User: Which sequence fits this backbone?
């Protein structure tokens, strides 16, 4: 049997978006919030957020984080509170905005920031707090009520929702109605993958308007830089791919959810759960880009990676090393990171992509069952 790759990004075929490219050729509009970009934003706002709030596209989610953090941060604040168990882009975005990451530990079950530790850190830092940046770990659809209260009480919040576009919580798109900013990634590895790209949503239309202005060099209508900005715009070519991706995304979500359900059933039927394997606690419908699972106690994820690879199965670790262990971020403060340290050496991410077969999933489960 051939190798089972970890990821198989599948951006839509050119025949699905060629008619949009033809429109670009006719309009000669290639960027600067062109007609295809505008159409995509309208479709997303209507189809995913019920025309509640506002959205703006960006060229990638890291730029989106930088723009949102810059727009919301307290001007005299110093620290950006965030988990260490996240992709380095979260911390990098804060650093680019002149802030220092302050790492908060995560919970054992959901792998998102521990709200009690976060609450204590907020009280301790006082005016030194600039912003809070939770990560919706692996697109799980975390409960935002705690963060909505923070936002309503004047504490800025930007949600790193890189993998959460298409995540539904009680049949509602994750982030809908949130008064801070929610940043989604459209990187090729994400379920809604267009190559590079991203989206920022907020219930606050004025906030999105400000971020949109900042993403276009901070220009006023007279093309004079009025506020701090950069070039963060999505091109019309990316918007063309995004529009075509929307047309088949519901079907893709169902396919990925079916694969997740198959994995979940096999973890139970083969008694891997009884052997100490743990799936992330979630109650949402998530368009998974891979299957994250916690290895049994006293089992290193790197050991299992080798056993999978010897059976021609590629897997990955996430996030190992965690941010606080990476050279650039070692100097920054944190709470105790006991859970983060444990997770970074025990989380294993398994293949889950469109086209993965039941036979291949069964093979992966069989290897895990025979781990020594």
Assistant:
């Amino acid at each position: 049997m051939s190798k089972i790759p970890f990821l198989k990004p599948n951006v839509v075929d050119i025949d699905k978006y060629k008619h949009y490219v033809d429109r670009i050729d006719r309009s000669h509009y290639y960027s600067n919030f062109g007609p295809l970009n505008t159409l995509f934003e309208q479709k997303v706002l209507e189809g995913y957020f019920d025309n509640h709030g506002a959205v703006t596209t960006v060229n990638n989610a890291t730029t989106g984080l930088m723009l949102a953090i810059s727009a919301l941060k307290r001007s005299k604040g110093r620290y950006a509170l965030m988990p260490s168990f996240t992709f380095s882009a979260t911390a990098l975005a804060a650093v680019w905005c002149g802030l220092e990451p302050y790492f908060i530990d995560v919970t054992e079950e959901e792998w998102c920031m521990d709200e009690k530790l976060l609450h204590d850190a907020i009280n301790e830092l006082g005016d030194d707090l600039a912003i809070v940046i939770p990560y919706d770990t692996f697109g799980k659809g975390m409960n935002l009520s705690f963060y909505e209260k923070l936002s309503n009480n004047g504490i800025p919040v930007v949600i790193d929702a890189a993998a959460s576009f298409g995540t539904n919580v009680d049949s509602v798109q994750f982030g809908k109605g949130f008064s801070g900013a929610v940043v989604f990634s459209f990187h090729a590895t994400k379920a809604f993958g267009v190559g590079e790209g991203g989206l920022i949503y907020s219930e606050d239309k004025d906030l999105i308007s400000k971020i949109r202005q900042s993403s276009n060099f901070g220009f006023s209508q007279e093309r004079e830089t009025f506020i701090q900005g950069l070039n963060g715009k999505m091109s019309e070519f990316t918007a063309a791919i995004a529009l075509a991706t929307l047309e088949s995304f519901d079907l893709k979500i169902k396919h990925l959810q079916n694969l997740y359900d198959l994995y979940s059933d096999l973890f139970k039927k083969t008694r891997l759960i009884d052997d100490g394997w743990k799936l992330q606690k979630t109650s949402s419908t998530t368009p998974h880009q891979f299957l994250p699972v916690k290895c049994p106690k006293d089992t290193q994820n790197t050991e299992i990676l080798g056993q999978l690879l010897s059976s021609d199965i590629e897997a990955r670790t996430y996030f190992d090393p965690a941010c606080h262990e990476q050279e650039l971020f070692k100097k920054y403060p944190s709470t105790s990171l006991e859970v983060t340290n444990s997770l970074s050496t025990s989380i294993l991410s398994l293949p889950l992509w469109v086209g993965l077969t039941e036979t291949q999933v069964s093979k992966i489960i069989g290897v895990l069952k025979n781990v020594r």
Notes: The radius of gyration is 21 Å.
